[in-house]
Amino acid sequence: MVPCLLCLVWLGASALLVPCLFVLGVAGCVRFDGAVLVVLGVAGCVRFDGAVCKGAATLIPRRPPCCPAHRLNLVTACALIGLWTAANVVMLTNVWWAMRSGDSVEREIDEGAFGEDAYALAADLLAVASTGDAALEELWSRHGATVDLALHEAAWLVDDLSASEAEALHRRAADIARSMHPDEPHHPEVLDSIDSLGLSLYTANKLAEAEQLLRHAVAGREKVLGAEHPDTLSSLHQLACAVRDEGKLDEAEKMLRRVLVAQERLLGLDNPETLSTVTDLAWTLDDAGNLEEAEALYRRSLTGRERVLGPEHEDTLSTLNNLAIVLDNMGKLDEAQKMYRRSLAGKEKVLGPDHEETLTSLHNLAYVLRNSGKLAESARLYRRALAGRAKVLGDDNIDTLTSMHNLANVLDDQGKLEEAEKLYRCALTGKQAAQGADNEDTLITVNNLAYVLNERGKVAEAEKLYRRALAGRERTLGKDHDDTLSSLSMLADVLVAAGKLPEAEALLRCGVARYERAHGPDAEETASCIGALASVLRQRGKHDEAKKLEAHVSAAQE
């Protein structure tokens, strides 16, 4: 506050020049005719007749009061003095506001207003933060962790902050906390600040850095607070989510089970935090392919949230959506549809038809309708999802491109190949730009576009794209991955259609070896590839070998 007070004193002193200049102007002692007066802010510099001086003017002999030049000088003096006064008023107001913001923060902290109106305190604290770290550190020296918490709240609560601005605030808070406790890395204030920064980075999908910070927070809180303190469990829960999203599913599952056991004992089965952990554990098990337990946990979470939060709460509706995904993956399509429809109706009512979460439920319902063979309704809902996501998220957003790709899938199923081709091409262009040419999702679109082109008789371009999909999947997924083997089989089909039988034979022999390695010699997928190879061998006149392979397929099918 001291710099602000000094600035206020200086501006007040400089403003005293205005009456002096006015008196001199009225007296006719200062020559303004043809001169330009420039106000240079706090420095108080005035330029007369091209000369720059500080608080000085060029004196000339007095003119008669009634002369025209004198009247012109008087009018000019009044106008310029008015501008000078307005500029000083603006500057004084800014200084007063900065001082008021700091005082407001202190009052709110002293009065305990943080818990009641965190948003207001966060907004006031942002005004103080804009003046530099010195002002924040001064507040910190008197109020400690409350200021740190408020600064983090500013990042979470103020709506017009961009993701990068919010992250920057979290980093400033963490840096200040460390500077205030340089020799205490496990000080509670430092750990609180690091935990908030880790959560911010997780939200921004900066998973590696988030994991590192959250591991530090967990270790520190276990040491200082204990393994089952609520803050320790909160950090461990968030760490589990970060490592899950990095693909470390076993570690994430162990962490979440540990958190859940402690929360059930300390908080109760229906506590919202306990139900949140149940939901994230179900999510992790779904990712790991443990669908039955995931379904059971989602049902438990749904029942608890409906009872505690209400059927139209956002968390309840999200659980409905996630349960529907598991049911779809388990082949329980009718129940999955019901869950999706409930989720969609609730989100349209609570969030609005164009909310991102509503559009996700719309997209997911369209997906399960396609799996159920309801292609017309699926296409209609995909068009709605695509239009909404393009409007809300933008044409190049990956969710928009996913809706576009899935709509093309349905149109292909309906035999609308021309429109499907156009959408696949558009989706491929966007995915390449957003994710890269060898991204797994991009390669799915490459493969599907090749399929439609082959159906439309564009064999040469289809062959080119299948080769690209196969090479990309071999690099990204490995030679024995199911998606890689699928591209291999499709490329072989195109080569046969193009009359390139020797290359098709060589490719299928390679495919048989890979299928046997991946699935076993008697697997259905292996038998299908062997049958395709036998067909090519017959076309090439190799009937004896073809007959042996066909006998092997028949024996495997029995």
Walkthrough of the structure:
It is a single chain. About 75% of the residues lie in helices and about 0% in strands. By secondary structure, the chain is mainly α. A hairpin with a 2-residue loop joins strand 1 and strand 2 (about 50-55). The protein starts with a helix and ends with a helix.
The run of helices and strands is: HHEEHHHHHHHHHHHHHHHHHHHHHHH
Low-confidence stretches: 1-6, 21-67, 95-119, 139-147
Strand line-up across the major sheet = 1-2
Strand-residue fraction? Answer: under 5%
- The number of helical segments is 25
Gap from first CA to last CA: 88 Å
Structural class by helix and strand composition = mainly alpha
Q: Considering DSSP H and I runs of 4 or more, what fraction of the residues is helical? A: over 70%
Count the beta strands.
2
Radius of gyration: 35 Å
Let me know the largest β-sheet: 2 strands, antiparallel
Gross geometry: globular
Query: What is the arithmetic mean of pLDDT?
Result: 80
Features:
single chain, 558 residues, mainly alpha, two-stranded antiparallel ribbon
Question: What would a concise description of this structure say?
Answer:
The protein is an all-alpha fold and about 550 residues long.
List the topology elements:
Elements: H1 2-15, H2 17-27, E1 45-48, E2 51-54, H3 68-110, H4 118-129, H5 133-143, H6 145-157, H7 163-180, H8 188-203, H9 207-224, H10 230-245, H11 249-266, H12 272-287, H13 291-308, H14 314-329, H15 333-350, H16 356-371, H17 375-392, H18 398-413, H19 417-435, H20 440-455, H21 459-476, H22 482-497, H23 501-519, H24 524-539, H25 543-557
Antiparallel strand pairs: 1-2
